Fold this protein.
Amino acid sequence: MTDDTPMPPNLDLIQMVQRARMLHDADAKPSEMDGNYWVEHKPSVPVAPPTPRAGRWVIETDIDQLDALWERVKQANAQGELGYKAKATAKARNGTDPRQRLIVVCVADSDDAADVARVRGVLESMGLGAALHYER
């Protein structure tokens, strides 16, 4: 007789896969990726974890500027100046303009107006204000 009780998820394995993904993405250039849709980066310092109300600042760019902007965002994110995670598209969004790319900076809580504004200020100080919009 078999036991129909589902096995609990192997959190060690999940964490190993997540660490491997971060190692892979650490030096990846989004413009050169074709297998993954997103390249991710998480801060190397403790930051607030995401809540169910997490939001994101979206930076619209193109493939020519993508890698340089991504390096700047990764550096600020590594120092804990942005959110809990940043991502860059490796492929065009929704099959529209094939040169269009996005960089996303995820914030922990859309209801924390001060933190959302703080992250916007950092991105604007990096010269990215014109390309920004926010999504809850």
Remarks:
- Residues 121 and 127 are 10 Å apart (CA to CA).
- The mean pLDDT is 89.
- Helices lie at 11-26, 63-78, 113-125.
- DSSP finds three helices and five strands in the chain.
